[in-house]
Amino acid sequence: MLKFKEQLEQKWGQFEKDEYFWKQRNIASVSPRTYLNVLFIPVDIRLYKSFEEEYNCVFPDELVEFYKHYNGIMLFCQSFRIFGFNLHVDMSYQTLHLNFENRRLNFQKKCTKYSNMISFGYYAEYNFCFDRKDKKNLRYQS
User: Fold this and answer.
1) Strand pairing class (80-82; 35-40)
2) d(CA 18, CA 90)
3) Which end of the chain has the smaller Cβ count within 10 Å, N or C?
4) pLDDT tens, 75-132?
């Protein structure tokens, strides 16, 4: 997992460190504050443990390892995201909040076969989820 940032740097150049995130490759033609990739600096892992308790789930090991290093990511101008926790309301960039996104999605999932799913990110029209009962990663079209 530690190589993730380095792999992005090999392809698109170095990240600049901000107070709460790393940003890579400014795309000024879109906006002065648009970046190709943003990686959020990790937060206390106890936040994720608290989320597991509230949602009666256990994160897959790979996701726990990810959250030890990042509090969410936005790649390719926000088309690919892994959710984290918004702790700083004054930030110019914020990760989508894991708790809020699952509350929003739970409303949509009430009567579907995906009601046991925990969403942790998305790419285009696909949500990335795992089943709270058996921790299997799953991708489904939303």
Assistant:
1) unpaired
2) 13
3) N
4) 888 888 899 887 765 556 666 778 778 877 765 555 456 677 888 888 887 888 888 7
Q: ∠ CA(80), CA(84), CA(85), 5° rounding?
A: 145
CA 45 to chain centre: 14
CA torsion angle for 58, 85, 8, 61 (degrees, to 10)? -10
- Domain limits, the chain: 3-134
| Residue 12 phi, psi dihedral angles, 5° rounding | -125, 10
The reply to whether CATH 3.40.1580 applies to domain 3-134 is yes
Cross-strand partners of 81: 74, 122
Are 43 and 99 in contact by the 8 Å Cβ rule? The answer is: no
Amino acid at 30: V
Give the residue from 107, 105, 88 showing the smallest Cα distance to 41. 88
As a whole number of angstroms, the distance between CA 83 and CA 86 comes to 9
Predicted TM-score of the model (pTM)? 0.80
